[in-house]
Backbone:
């Protein structure tokens, strides 16, 4: 059964658009389109974004050729190629945008890693895989797009082997966020809520997971959205030609909302790592 919340359908439509594709390829980083970990506030977006991948991978014990990984919301597949190249992992990229999937497949072939990476069109609300198919579930800044996060966690539980790991990042709301203050962010991404550290801890505990490590890094979210805004402003005319003025101006307003939410302490972000018992 193909189960997709309205939020997921909206996300698929958005990421398949030519305007979004041009922006994420040219400004956000192209290879890795998620929040970076910055050593310096003016560091390059792509370098910081790749550091997030490297940091997450180092937290998983025993990564190697026998490790079966599913990357939920894989984007252009940068994390999958890193895991395949650096560790020899077999990776399934599950992603709802066929526009992104096509480029992912091209890059896998260009790098000679396509024999280790499968690219599958689909949603993490209904993962097209057998029970216990994976040793590691990986995701970066994607689960927020679900309108039914408990369903996503049920699917993660189902496809993960006993003793397997799930590691992910997600833009979240603070555990004690006041009602209504995140509405400008939620409206833009067609959601009614974001997850939180408390939500994920409680929900994974219900499903028999042990928390291995959670590392809150709100400052990195703030730095990343600010840096993306800086880059977009500095290349405004160039990106307007690719994505259109309406898209670019809306993106700049949206980025400002994220920065403001971080400055006010209403948001959260970090790496969450749980192990299935």
Residues:
């Amino acid at each position: 059964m193909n189960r997709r919340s309205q939020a997921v359908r909206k996300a698929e439509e958005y990421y398949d658009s030519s305007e979004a594709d041009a922006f994420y390829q040219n400004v956000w980083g192209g290879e890795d389109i998620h929040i970076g970990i910055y050593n310096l506030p003016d560091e390059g977006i792509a370098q910081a974004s790749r550091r997030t991948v490297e940091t997450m991978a180092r937290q998983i014990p025993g990564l190697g050729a026998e490790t079966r990984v599913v990357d939920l919301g894989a984007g252009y597949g940068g994390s999958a190629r890193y895991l395949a190249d650096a560790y020899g992992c077999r990776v399934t990229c599950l992603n709802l945008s066929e526009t992104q999937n096509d480029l992912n497949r091209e890059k896998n072939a260009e790098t000679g890693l396509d024999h280790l990476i499968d690219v599958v069109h689909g949603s993490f609300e209904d993962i097209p895989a057998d029970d216990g198919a994976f040793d590691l579930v990986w995701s970066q800044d994607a689960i927020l797009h679900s309108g039914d996060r408990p369903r996503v966690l049920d699917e993660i539980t189902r496809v993960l082997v006993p003793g397997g790991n799930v590691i992910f990042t997600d833009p979240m709301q603070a555990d004690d966020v006041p009602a209504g203050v995140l509405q400008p962010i939620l409206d833009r991404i067609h959601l009614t809520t974001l997850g939180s550290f408390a939500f994920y801890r409680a929900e994974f505990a219900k499903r028999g997971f042990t928390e291995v490590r959670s590392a809150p890094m709100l400052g990195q979210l703030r730095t990343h959205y600010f840096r993306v805004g800086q880059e977009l402003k500095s290349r405004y005319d160039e990106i307007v030609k690719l994505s259109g003025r309406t898209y670019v101006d809306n993106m700049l307003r949206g980025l400002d909302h994220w920065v403001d939410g971080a400055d006010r302490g209403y948001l959260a972000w970090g790496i969450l790592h749980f192990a299935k018992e």
In short: DSSP finds eleven helices and nine strands in the chain.
